[in-house]
What does this fold into?
Amino acid sequence: MQQFIIRRFITSLIAIICATTLVFGMSRFLSDPRYIYLGEVGYGMTQERWDEMEKELHLDQPVPVQFYYWAKDVLRGDLGNDLRDNRALTPKLVEKFSATAKLGVVAWILATIVGVPLGVYSALNRGSTLDYLMRGFALFGQCLPQFWIGILGILIFAVWLNWLPAATMGDGFSIKHYVMPTITLAWLPAAGYLRFTRSAMLEVLDSEYIKLARIKGVSHNVVIWRHAFMNAALVPLTATALVLASFITGSVLVEAVFAWPGIGFFLVQAVFSNNINVIVAVILFFTALFIFVNFVVDVLYGFIDPRIRYS
Amino acid sequence: MSQEVLDSLTGATRRNIFVESWAFIRRWPVIPGVILIVLVVSVAFAPVLSPQGPLENNLRDRLLPPIGFEGGQWSHPLGTDPIGRDLLSRVLYGGRISIMVAIVAMVVGTIVGVTLGLIAGYFGKIVDEIIMRIVDIWFALPFLMVALLIAVMLRGDSNSSVAGTGAPTLMVLLALIVWSSYVRYVRAEVLSLKERDYIQLAKVAGASTFRILFWHILPGVINTTLVIATLRAGQLILAEASLSFLGVGVPPPEPTWGSMISDGREYLRDAWWVSVMPGIAIFLLVMSLNFVGDWMRDRFDPRLRQI
It folds into this structure.
């Protein structure tokens, strides 16, 4: 087990290093980051500031040396400055992350409590009208652009019915502000959970030991929940990577639609103002989060299913 | 022998036309197929079908609702936007750009992905290891954000040789998303194919590696490739729409579905149709693509069920 964890840890570390190098390389090789502040979209810049930035970003050095300086700062927890107001980025990101995390956690809970039970139900009543309805619901989640679901929600519930606020997080904790963003964000992952749980349950229910348990006279509920579901529940866990990826992408779009004051919205603003440092920092942050969560899931999986450890 | 006798001998019962056609609809992806063809054809013939040019505006006809709502006019079936541009024309022309970008990105991404998969599977060892690690790392990166970064880098630099954002940049960005999804499946397929006798015989006959890869192995992975391509096509359309929505797609005033939805947000109160219509177009296209993809998977390569 220890060996397994160490091996996974090293692979994750290598992945983070490579991903970081790649992203940093893109931010330097594709063009001179300073040009972005000039031109019609830039903020306008004096010659002094131009030269100053060359020193700050070490642009007079070759790219690998730039990377060395940058990586050194990142390891100390300094993600550079917001090029707009020249303030440190790390505290800003930490502050914005709390909003994103609140949205993400609520949406994740919603996706799980909707997707998994419906998947089980769908598998148990295969071919029934409700099964088709559920699959239709999942299908919609996969075919509708997330940002459009959000806009439709705003149109119906904020503009027409005037039930819910159209945007922002509100002051303090107001449930009304959470309803639309979380549902919009949770739909696609819920659909994923539903599909994964459904197919896993169908597979398990078809196996020999379930039939044996039934012949033995174990009650229906025990067969379903203890024997079948416990094994099928592993599958949604393996889907974590996919679900997390859709959360990360989704949070950008959903926050952009609802002006949610989180990292995704920050990123979208940075895109409009050409704020390269912010974009690189956000990508780095989410990549690290993704790899870290996958590492944790792998280890968890190793605990639960010993077969994984030795493969 | 008459038909009745034949039927009674074979035990077949002649079903009525409704049952037959329902069975046909269930067996073949008729409805999504028809939607897909209608969409693609009407988008391809946008210059013929649209009532006016996508950029033509007429302020007297501004904010007309679609037909069926009070004030709707047949000259503008889907209504008009706040500066009087016809929405149907814009949806059709917008679809032209979206679909064209998606097709080119798909072709480029497929060629790159399949080739890498072939190479990884056939040569194995260190080549395989390197390619698969790259794919793993690529999967860990948040695509949408990386695409945003590249788009910003390219549009900001007026001195850059690559000219800003536009259809070509968008194609490259989307191709970057596509290629990685093929490598793993194609590689797995090649691993089993290359052990077959006919490949060994081709080697003995002195066929070059290039010939073995592209003449003997490639046909074996075509099914897998086609299925993945159709299943990914919908996601590609969604990704294109998302990028346009976030403002890094084809620049205005050229219409794209994503940017139309984004523009319409300001007028939700007065003109909901500006945002809603392009969304419906995206939905229909993606849904029919997914249905056709599912059907192709079940028919050609059921092993790919988990994607």
About this structure: Chain B has a mean pLDDT of 82. The CA atoms of residues 242 and 258 of chain B lie 6 Å apart.
